[in-house]
From TrEMBL:
Family under the similarity heading: Belongs to the phD/YefM antitoxin family.
Annotated Gene3D superfamilies: YefM-like domain
Protein name: Antitoxin
Superkingdom, natural source: Bacteria
Length: 69
């Protein structure tokens, strides 16, 4: 029985296990990390940082200014 349920989960199915009609557990596929997508996002942020400068502004001053608005 469990092996059949796990095969369904491997296919992407979400299975809710109930006891007397009330949900007690859920079997879901394990989330797969897309490391390439994460790596590209980090590189993109680093490139953005290179081309956008705060100039003479200080982070704390910007935070306080934002709180005034």
């Amino acid at each position: 029985m469990l092996s059949r349920l796990l095969k369904e989960v491997e296919k992407g199915e979400r299975i809710v296990i109930t006891r007397y009609g009330s949900p007690i557990a859920e079997l879901t596929p394990y989330p797969v990390r897309n490391t390439e997508k994460i790596r590209k996002a980090i590189l993109g942020l680093k490139e953005f940082q290179k081309s956008h400068s705060l100039g003479d502004a200080k982070i704390q001053d910007l935070i306080e200014e934002g709180r005034k608005d």
